């Protein structure tokens, strides 16, 4: 059954997928990072959610995370394109479709974790 993108059910499914993915756990075993996402213009209005990774486990949840290492902002259209795999995050950044603020070094040092996170979420049945 499909879960609505950026809903509580999506966050729960994402957290479960991350917890069940051995490659994600291996890649993030020594990673401690938090990313705040700000998505504008979604059907539900502006949506804030975050990803926290600590020692091989992760959680995604709606809302804001105090002291996030990085904040990534985009439109809903861009977030959907990235989620579907139609738009590469690096290309989105280079073309100004996403804005990144905070500790860029943390983000750049943990590209493997970001790639593993993205790969782990591909199995979720999502409606947009």
The helix-and-strand class reads: alpha/beta
N-to-C CA distance: 13 Å
Shape: globular
Major beta-sheet overview: 5 strands, mixed
CATH topology: Nonspecific Lipid-transfer Protein, Chain A
The mean pLDDT is: 96
Share of β-strand residues? 25-35%
Number of helices: 6
Beta strand count: 7
Q: What proportion of the residues is helical, as a percent range? A: 25-40%
Superfamily (CATH H level) name? SCP2 sterol-binding domain
Strand order of the main beta sheet, please?
A: 4-3-2-5-6
User: Class in CATH?
Assistant: Alpha Beta
Rounded to the nearest angstrom, the radius of gyration is: 13 Å
How would the blueprint of this fold be written?
Elements: E1 3-4, H1 8-20, H2 22-27, E2 32-42, E3 45-54, E4 57-62, E5 70-75, H3 76-84, H4 89-94, E6 98-102, H5 104-109, H6 111-120, E7 126-127
Question: What would you say this structure looks like, in words?
Answer:
The protein is of the alpha/beta class. It has a single domain, classed as Nonspecific Lipid-transfer Protein, Chain A (2-Layer Sandwich). Helices cover 39% and strands 33% of the residues. The protein is globular, with a radius of gyration of 13 Å. The protein has helices spanning 8-20, 22-27, 76-84, 89-94, 104-109, 111-120; strands at residues 3-4, 32-42, 45-54, 57-62, 70-75, 98-102, 126-127. The strands form two sheets. The protein has a five-stranded mixed beta sheet. The chain contains six helices and seven strands, in the order βααββββααβααβ. β2 (32-42) and β3 form a beta hairpin.
